[in-house]
Amino acid sequence: MSLRPASTIGYIPANEQAGPELYARNDLDRGHQVRRRDPVWGDLATATAANHATFVYTNAAPQAGEFNQSAELWAGLENYVLN
Where's the DNA/RNA non-specific endonuclease/pyrophosphatase/phosphodiesterase domain (predicted)? Predict the structure, then answer.
């Protein structure tokens, strides 16, 4: 298997991507698109790698911190639906 050079794939330049500065000094929180716990299963090495793989900006969407972390709002809804 060979991979094409990044310059031929059309990656977004780093200076045009959102990063930690988007979430600094405001109420925005990184809302996971794939919930962190969901892919964390298997042997320890696999689970650890899967856990780390969810902590990327491409798996995050800006959300109001109170909404994202509230047990009654988003986190509560996730837990209710998935349990």
Answer: 11-83
Q: Provide the residue type at 1 as one letter.
A: M
H helix intervals, the chain: 44-53, 65-69, 74-82
Decide if 22 contacts 28 (C-beta within 8 A). yes
- Residue-averaged pLDDT of the chain: 79
Give me the residue spans of the domains in the chain: 26-82
Q: Is residue 68 annotated as involved in ligand binding? A: yes
Tell me the helix, strand and coil percentages in the chain, rounded to 5.
Answer: 45, 10, 45
Q: Is the dihedral of CA 16, 34, 38, 6 positive or negative?
A: negative
pTM of the full predicted structure? 0.56
Q: Which position among 32, 33, 53, 56 bears the catalytic label?
A: 32
- Verify whether residue 32 is a known catalytic residue: yes
